[in-house]
Amino acid sequence: MNIKSLLLGSAAALIAVSGARAADAVTVAEPEPAEYVKICDVYGSGYFYIPGTETCLRIGGYVRYDISAGDVGSFDGARSTDVLNGKDQGTWHKNARFELKTWTGQETELGTLKTYTETKIQFGNSAYYAGADGNQAHNKGAALVYAWMQLGGLRVGLDDSAFDTFIGYAGNVLNDTIVPYGDFSTNLIQYNFDAGNGFSAIVSLEEGSVDTNNVFYVGTIDSYVPHVVGGVKYTQGWGAITGVVAYDSNYEEWAGKVRADFNVTSELSLFAMFGYGTDKHSLDVASGRDFYKQWGGHWAWWAGGTYKFNPKTSFNLQVSGDADKNYGVAANVAYDIVSGLTVTAEVDYDHFGHFNDGTPFGNWTAADKKNNVGGFLRFQRSF
Questions:
Q1: Which of 18, 96, 98, 364 gives 354 a disulfide partner, CB atoms 3.0 to 4.6 angstroms apart?
Q2: Signal peptide: which range, if any (predicted)?
Q3: DSSP letters of 141-181?
């Protein structure tokens, strides 16, 4: 056998073996086309279709860090306390918060079906100078802030009271409740009507809520009769005129607010709001306060506005007062360092006219007046 015949024979053998192995090989199926997330621009930016559904979802929220000092208003953070001597050290407050928000939207034969949720997790430091806890950290845990669904104009679930959401909050200041203008969280059933020509209206049946900062009144309904809120609004390019009225079924009290908003220029916007409420139970605790009429006495007012120096920097102001001679001023400058990251510096002042001296029936007097100053520094990354 010559070399040529040997090479040809070897090649034939290799081809035969190769063909046998190819016949025994496992056939791999081609991969199915991937379903990439599709953008949904029906409800605004940031929405995408949940794969396999017609529901659009948006996920957002923020991370916030607050530093505060002074004695003005309420604050989520903890402060140094000497529990041995029962003394509030009056130094720094600090608080970190993570808030997660979700929005959904879907078109149905009965209108747009929406949901909204908001959950916050907070952490604040507490310094104790006595006791077994020592220098302890305080994790304040998670809280559900909002969770509602809406079909067309019908909304049910957990939301802020329509006494506040429909007429608007009291300015773009951090401490907007130096003179309070209403309570907030409540379970509710409400209907929103939009005529499409600038006129809108709302009716809301509300449960109220327990205010852990005020033990002197009952906020949650204690019978089969709900709290009731109604409102009307007229909106145009120059601004809006709004009115709301609320009935507290626990105390059988009424409260109302009217508000005017003005878009003076593209840089300057102003608002003014006036509230009035009955206080037949003023001989009870909290000087006649109820779930809606949180201010002292029959009437209260709030005014302020926002001026935008440039697209990144704005100045915000609120002044307020009530019939009990409580007055407040809050002013801040908010600056967007980059898109989504804002730092806000605020100074607050309040003057107490009448305040509770701690007696069981709330002996509110005009003799003990007090002036307080405080401030915030807030860092917030929104996404």
A1: 364
A2: 1-22
A3: EEEEEEEEEEETTEEEEEEE-HHHHTT--S-S-S-TTSS--
Window from 63-67, 184-188, 219-223, 313-317 with minimum mean pLDDT: 219-223
The Cα–Cα gap between 184 and 162 comes to 9
The pLDDT value given to residue 88: 57
Residues with Cβ within 8 Å of residue 383, at least 6 apart in sequence: 60, 61, 62, 340
Helices marked H in the chain — which ranges?
Answer: 3-24, 162-165
Type of residue numbered 72: V
**Would you give the DSSP letter of residue 286?**
G
319-377 pLDDT, tens digit per residue, is 999 999 999 999 999 999 999 999 999 999 999 886 544 333 344 444 444 788 888 89
The contacts of residue 236 (CB under 8 Å, 6+ apart) are: 198
For residue 302, give the 3-state DSSP assignment.
Answer: strand
Query: What is the 8-class DSSP label of residue 262?
Result: E
Question: Does residue 251 carry a pLDDT above 50?
Answer: yes
- Give the three-class secondary structure for 3: helix
pTM for the structure as a whole? 0.81
In whole angstroms, give the CA distance from residue 95 to residue 66: 5
Question: Could you tell me which of 257, 119, 108, 130 has the C-alpha nearest to residue 182?
Answer: 257
Distance between CA atoms of residues 234 and 239, nearest Å: 9
Cα distance between residue 95 and residue 97, in whole Å: 7
Helix, strand and coil content of the chain, in percent to the nearest 5, comes to 10, 55, 40
- Cα-Cα end-to-end distance for the chain: 81
Q: Name the DSSP letter for residue 24.
A: H
Token pair 């019908």 is at which residue? Answer: 154
pLDDT greater than 70 at residue 90: no
Instruction: Give the dihedral sign, CA 295/296/298/303.
Output: negative
Three-class secondary structure of residue 327 per DSSP? strand
Is residue 233 within 8 A of residue 242, CB to CB? The reply is yes
